[in-house]
Design goal:
By secondary structure, the protein is of the alpha+beta class. It has a single domain, classed as Alpha-Beta Plaits (2-Layer Sandwich). It has 5 helices and 10 strands; from the N terminus they run βαββαβββαββαβαβ. The strands form 2 sheets. The chain has a 5-stranded antiparallel sheet, with helices on one face. The longest helix is centred in the N-terminal third of the chain and has 17 residues.
């Protein structure tokens, strides 16, 4: 199984038309696939940015390319078509096969100039600190990519394991997110609780498989 991604920017003034085109196109695209060659396909949007994620099995083609071809009049590719996005972080953990029991966390940030390698270095340090241990949850399938100046993150959360964080966990989260604000700005609303700023909540446009 391979993970495929795509990142697009909606052209100025046509977001409503883009979303309408998506609605008309989606059934046509899915009709071209039997459902056995891919899974966990979803398209997300915040501001004028679109992120697509799909798991592809065997040598099957990804549905993300025909999706782009169907909506390309309304958007421009950032990366993920002929130029795959760069993997910045991965913590797969235990994959939950029953997707009805998961909640998604999908986010978008913009890197500050010259901070791409520092972002990668900090996340490499997280991987090293795990010392090969498998994350039991609630997070799983947590993967982060870089496309252009942007960071796109995809994570599945086991809803049965979600709980109120401890004071120690809250302090660690605040310390990490405050430090990350040195090198990136948020597009989605994930840390509005910390910064007091107002960003869009990411919107799932479509999901299948």
């Amino acid at each position: 199984m391979r993970r495929e991604t795509i990142a697009l920017r909606i052209k100025s003034g046509v977001k409503d038309e883009f979303k309408r085109r998506c609605g008309k196109t989606w059934p046509e695209i899915l009709a071209g696939f039997d459902g056995n060659g891919f899974g966990n396909l979803s398209i997300w949007c915040a501001e004028d940015l679109v992120f697509g994620y799909c798991e592809v099995f065997g040598d099957e083609k990804t549905p993300l390319t025909p999706f782009y071809e169907a909506v390309q009049d309304y958007c421009d590719p950032i990366t993920g078509l002929n130029e795959p996005m760069r993997l910045m972080y991965e913590d797969i953990g235990f994959i939950r096969e029953d997707k009805s029991k998961i909640a998604h966390r999908v986010f978008i940030t913009k890197l500050k100039p010259g901070c791409r390698e520092e972002y990668k270095r900090r996340h490499d340090a997280l991987i090293e600190s795990r010392c090969g241990r498998v994350n039991p949850g609630p997070e799983s399938n947590f993967t982060i990519w870089n496309g252009g100046d942007y960071i796109f993150g995809y994570c599945e959360m086991d809803k049965s394991m979600l709980k109120e964080p401890s004071e120690e966990e809250k302090k660690a989260t605040i310390a990490w997110e405050t430090r990350m604000l040195e090198i990136m700005d948020w597009i989605t609303d994930d840390v509005d609780w910390l910064t007091g700023l107002k960003h869009e909540k990411i919107e799932m446009l479509f999901s299948a498989g």
